[in-house]
Amino acid sequence: PVFAGMNGSAIENFSCVIYNIFLMNCTWQAGRDAPADTQYFLYWQKSREDNQMECELYMQGENGRNMGCMFQNVSIGIEKAYFLVNGSSKDSLIQFYDEYIDLYKIEKLMPPSNITVNCDEIKNDCVIQWQQPQISHSNKDMCFKYEINIKYK
């Protein structure tokens, strides 16, 4: 059956973030009713055409249980990515957790670079310029809104 496994054994609070353009961290908490020996394993698939990949670099909690994963060389496609976390225990079956995520929605953007400020005291104005930060997906112009906070000394 699709939902085989002990109730409350699937992971909770699953969350992923992409940062520094191509790194992705995913974290979760153990199911509240999972047996103490439960170990979790994360798989993800960027698109239907791609192969499912298991995490290569798990982050572990104090008891050696996998509680997160770090991925490198992540690129953002146009399809939702599929994430699956299953678990194993010698005592009972563990429910799996799965979710589809738009990767562009979880990207933490870098700050703008090459910020310059040129002020003209005679005209009493300033020109502030910057370069848009690099991002890993294509809808660059639709993603950026800037806020400038100017404080006078």
UniProtKB/TrEMBL annotation:
Keyword Glycoprotein assigned: yes
Topological relation to the membrane, as annotated: Single-pass type I membrane protein
Pfam families per the UniProt record, alphabetical: IL6Ra-bind
Gene3D superfamilies in alphabetical order: Immunoglobulins
Entry's localization field: Membrane
GO cellular component, one term: external side of plasma membrane
Chief site of localization: membrane
Protein name: CSF2R factor
Species assigned in the record: Acrocephalus arundinaceus (Great reed-warbler)
Gene label: Csf2ra_3
